[in-house]
Amino acid sequence: MTGSIEIDVAVVGAGPAGLAAALALNHVGAPTALIGPPPSGAVIGTGDTRTAALLASSVDLLKALRVWDAVAPHGAPLKAIRIVDASGDWFRSPDIQFEASELGLEAFGYNIANDALASVLYRRAVEVLPVVTPHTVAKIEIGTEGASLQLNEGQAISARLIAGADGRRSICRAAAGIGIKEWRYEQKAIATSFTHTHAHENVSIELHRKAGSMTTVPLTDANASSLIWVGATDEIDGLMHLDEASFAAELVGRLGGILGKIDKVGPRAAFPVSGLTADSMVGPRTALIGEAAHVLPPIGAQGLNLGFRDAAALADCVAGAQKSNRDPGARDVLDAYANSRKLDVLSRAIGVDFLNRSLLTGFLPLKLARSIAVRGLAALPPLRRFVMQVGMVPPTELPSLMRPIPAR
Ligand SMILES: Cc1cc2nc3c(=O)[nH]c(=O)nc-3n(C[C@H](O)[C@H](O)[C@H](O)COP(=O)(O)OP(=O)(O)OC[C@H]3O[C@@H](n4cnc5c(N)ncnc54)[C@H](O)[C@@H]3O)c2cc1C
Predict the structure, then answer these.
(1) Distance 38 CA to ligand 1 centre (A)
(2) Which of 96, 269, 288, 327 lies 20 to 30 Å from 201, alpha-carbon distance?
(3) How many beta carbons lie within 10 A of that of residue 134, not counting itself?
């Protein structure tokens, strides 16, 4: 197919962050094209093995975009988070449980399979966006008035703003000349799910082990949870080679019977544990969204929540330009976006990196400091509430589409 389309905004990448960005930009009135292969799990449960624990503000975004009713049946509420020190150190920290009710909330958020989330968002995008194309972008040329995106099928799209949501190897980022900082941990993470004989009671359990964290997150079935098992690269490679029964036996051993016996384990996928931050969230005619801008280790459920905040913040900046009939890709719009995201991204990247390294460290004073901090959290409800707020809410004001809709 050949031909050319002219549009205000082109969102590149139909992952969950790109889908949210395209819907948010369309919602504020910007004519938007979504470019990228549809989510792999067109049939739920066949693609991505990951789930995402979406915090309350991300749920509010889905409500504002009118997709929450379709997503909600796939989401399990997270009512509490229990942290267990499984390091085996002699000054082991006490178990600590954070309850959403301590913040006056019914749940911290909802755990949703990536496949289910992306399928619902993609269906909505096809319904409401003026242009949705399943092709990939092969080449981008950026000029002073706009950018031209050449698709692999020969079609071209001209846009005044590119929202680059094309993941960690972003072609949009490269075309805009934005550099990155990237680092690796000698770790990998397995994402899978399993069924268990004890009900999870909507409690997520984080086991802090020396080789990395191991987190179970409730699924909609009271006896099923998703699992993120972070460990040393060799350990995870070994676990990936085990058959289902042997993997289940290893899992029971590590969980120490916390969720009872394990019946079934779902498909497993391993992900490298790494970090990446773009040197800037913006470049000429380009704003970066989601993992194109930042990749964090999978602890603390921050990655996609951060990507959703990018999406909603860009929509705010573009809405401002739309209102006064200004160019959505103008430098001042891009600068406003970059400024609004800087502190949130930096603080999450530093926080998650510190948390991961503090688990891995053999440095005694740091381990002791962690243990003392956890004891303080266990004993002091105001401190616990403060930490929960920091984990839930960014250090800057929430974008408009993420503010709770007042009940009528
Ligand atoms: C084990 C694990 C557990 C996690 N758990 C959580 C959690 O509980 N909570 C949370 O908030 N986050 C979590 N995360 C992070 C979260 O999964 C990611 O942040 C999120 O999936 C990234 O979405 P994205 O849309 O930015 O990128 P991606 O999902 O990588 O999407 C990028 C898209 O761009 C497309 N693309 C690439 N190149 C092109 C091109 N040239 N043209 C067009 N399209 C292109 C790709 O096809 C893809 O669809 C977890 C991550 C891992 C690894």
Answers:
(1) 13
(2) 269
(3) 13
